[in-house]
Amino acid sequence: MTTGEKNIENYLRKYLKSTKRIRTLEVLEQSIEAEKPKKPISLSFKIEKPETKKNITKRKNDKTKEKVPEEFKRLAHRFGLPKEHLQFFYDNRESFHWESMEKKDIHCTEPSCNFLEKMINKSLVSHMINEHQYTDIPCTKTDCNYIACSQKALNGHLRSFHGPGRKPSANQMLNCKFSSCNYVAPSKSVLGEHHNIHENRVFSCAFCPYRCIQRKSMSIHMKKHFNIRDHVCHECGARFNATGVLRTHISIKHTAGAGFECVYCNKTFSKISDQRAHGRTCSERFKHIRIHL
Question: Which residues form the C2H2-type domain (predicted)?
């Protein structure tokens, strides 16, 4: 606003006041106020867009999995740790006794086998093949390219993947894309893992022939190689390498009179071995299977 315009406004104000034209003065003030440039409003708080489910999941994953720093990579190289498992070693760095790792020994992962070998790439391959009959066994089922690393792995694959499986729950809505498969998944991520089995997209161990679909399963397998037992029973102090194994231990050893329930027919058993035996033949388990013609 120029100096001349200000002088005119002041003259009008004085004139309207002296002539007692109060209502006209109010209109003038309102028009002058409306023509002034608006100042940006400064808030005492920050307005942010609401997080989507995808962003929340990504943020949680980023927090859970820290990026492996260069200093740790140099330490891993010194001990000869394989690059493909650096994330595992970094996530479990507090469980390792780095001084003792100078020996560079790793354990066989088979139950009741105490064999140790020097920690080098593929160091346990010969042992697993000769002592535990590990070998590549392709699945022969339709639309399945999965290749098991042992007969035990193939049996587990046939039982969980091509068997009757668990009865689908109400939230399972996504069908497998392969027409010969009955599987129904609760989410896209779970369905993606299922498709990985069909197409044999797996994680491979750097030390032995073991392969698996889930990163979590590979982490548990690696803990067996390095004898990491970071899950402790607070009742008796027993240590395990996975939450599921600890949970089973507690249910068997420290849960009195709870019983073991069949997830298909809700029948209860006093022993977990009886419950598992029943589950293999439970008639309710087979009712949900679709027959493909």
Answer: 231-259, 260-293
